[in-house]
Amino acid sequence: MAGMEYTLTGFDDFLERRRVVFVEPLPSTRVCGVCGVVPSRSLLLPCGHVLCQACKRQIVNGEQKCPMDGREFAEGAVVSINFKQSDLEQHHVFCVVGGRECSFAGRLGDLKEHVAGCCNDKVRCAQCQLSMLRSVAVQHCRQCDAKSAPQQIMSTMAIAVAVENIGSMKRDLEKIRQRASSEKVDNDAVVNDANSLMERMTCLERELMQEGKASGERDFLLPAMKKSVITVGPYRTFSKPGVFMTTWKFDEIYAGYSAVTKGKKEHVLSTDSGSLAGYEFKLDCKIQTQENEDVLLNFVLSLGDGELDNFLEWPFAKKVTVIVWHPRDERKDIRIPLSMEDPQMVKKPAPDSWNDSVSTVAVTWEDIEFHGFVVNDAVYVNVELE
């Protein structure tokens, strides 16, 4: 899912301080050049830069200078620009609930009605804490194996909360790193943010230690929980600590199969590019026929130019595994390790370009269809980086 994310303010209650991803970028005159917020009323300075009212109030009287270029301006030369909500609502946006799992890409004015009925948001099972789409939660609950072990669930819940907190801290750490590397560094702000992050980490460490002591009295329950869990839906927890994971959905898989069985040599199902562990990459599904008329599926991955490339390790050296997910039983998942050794595959991508791609070993269409990997004309694929 591409697009540009903005925080809105000054409109109705539903949109107030709401982060929304727009299909197309908004005009620069609608966006505060300092904080990036899209306000209902912005202020245009003579130099051409735009401020929201909150940022404008931070300019002390007598020091009327643009915070971006330092040019002085007269208060009377500032132009007020109003952004009517009726105009804002004509712009197309993506779903704020389901993200890339939801196909909604409609008018902002239709977003509120869509959100009320959208079931593509991620939720956690109240029994086992597995993450899944809300649209499959009831089906999962009927077959969840964790109902008979409430004591162990409490420990699982603590771990799930800790994982969420760690993810939040990782995002905050990335923001601190970006701020520290900018040309205009506010050292005090960086130090304050770093101290706040350290305090959160200390609290999390203390909570995990307390949970570990409490769980020692119920370790006898663990063997019963170690059996394989049959998971409904193509959504999995991480296979091990320290891995990064994301999901791709390849729609209209039967149309691709039909195309190659009617004479077309190969058919490619493409998706939007995505980011994982900071790396930008895309994944395609290539369907092709062999001389013996067997139909094969290959998954093709390539690294591309990303916003965080300057902060990442190059050449790319992470272990990559492509996983075709079974919709009901994770024990049937097809795990395909990728070998990325060619320098043209793992080098730092040039601006606005993609590296050479790498393809998985082939999976037969017979295995995919016969063993039930197709769900509503789609195949789900997970990519893990370790």
TrEMBL record:
The protein, known as: RING-type domain-containing protein
Keywords: Metal-binding, Zinc, Zinc-finger
Span of domain RING-type: 32-69
PROSITE patterns in UniProt: ZF_RING_2
Molecular function per GO: zinc ion binding
Pfam families attached to this UniProt entry: TRAF-mep_MATH, zf-C3HC4_3
The keyword Hydrolase is assigned to this record: no
UniProt xrefs under InterPro entries: TRAF-like, TRAF1-6_MATH_dom, Znf_RING, Znf_RING/FYVE/PHD
